[in-house]
Amino acid sequence: MMIEDRIGSKPAPQPLRTVQAFVNTSDVETGREDLATPRDLRQWLSERELLKGDETFRDADLRQAKELRAALRQMLLANNSGASDPGAIGVMNRFARTAQMVLTFKETGEAEVRPAAEGPDGALGRILARVCASMADGTWQRLKACKQRECLWAFYDRSKNHSGAWCAMSVCGNRTKARGYRNRSRGS
Ligand SMILES: [Zn+2]
Q1: Which of 19, 118, 167, 180 stands 20 to 30 A from 46 (CA)?
Q2: Is 144 helix (H, G, I), strand (E, B) or coil?
Q3: Is residue 183 a part of any domain in this protein?
Q4: Could you tell me the distance, in angstroms and rounded to a whole number, from the CA of residue 166 to the centre of ligand 1?
Q5: Which residues sit opposite 115 in a β-bridge?
Q6: The pTM is what?
Q7: What is the helix (H) or strand (E) element at residue 143, kind and residue range?
């Protein structure tokens, strides 16, 4: 059975949607983990055509994927707060080197960034390529991790002025407000 895309009610357009779904393979709030084993990871990647061969995935590959996922989530939090995260950027650069990202020109004349590495490294590189493409098409800045720290769900902010901070105002927005109220009353 296919592992479903976890995009919720605010899906990003492709190719960014795959990045959103990758971040949401873990749900901070419920503890759900779609990538519990190296086999799950392999299945998830091949179902999204990020993996071409039939390589065996090891525990180390799963750890790498989770590290990239955590860095991406930090990048999405940075999209929400506006403050960049040097730690996450360092991790992204390391993955870009491991995947041997190269710039190529297609027959159509369009430029494309893609990984020269194969196997698990190449598959994670194809996720980086989607990040890069979405930065170029202007959609990246709208993909955010929910500001509510027990949530951190990746959502696509379609608001006119890019001001959306929560995956759902009705859930996390109100929860944040309620906590602010509680904190204030506790302080008085
Ligand atoms: Zn949320």
Answers
A1: 167
A2: strand
A3: yes
A4: 5
A5: 101
A6: 0.91
A7: strand 143-145
Q: How many domains does the chain have?
A: 1
Asked, for residue 97, whether it belongs to a domain, the answer is yes
8 A C-beta contact, residue 120 and residue 64: yes
Does residue 117 lie in a domain region?
Answer: yes
The CA 5 to ligand 1 mean position distance, Å, reads 17
Question: Quick check: 182 pLDDT over 60?
Answer: no
How far, in Å, is the centroid of ligand 1 from the Cα of 27?
A: 10
Mean pLDDT of the 150-169 span: 92
* CATH number of residue 156's parent domain: 1.10.3300
How does residue 181 score in pLDDT terms, banded at 50, 70 and 90? Answer: low
Assigned domain for 5 exists: no
pLDDT digits 0-9 by tens, 51-101: 987 889 999 999 999 999 999 999 999 999 989 999 999 999 999 999 999
> For the chain, what is the largest distance between any 2 Cα atoms, rounded to a whole number of angstroms?
67
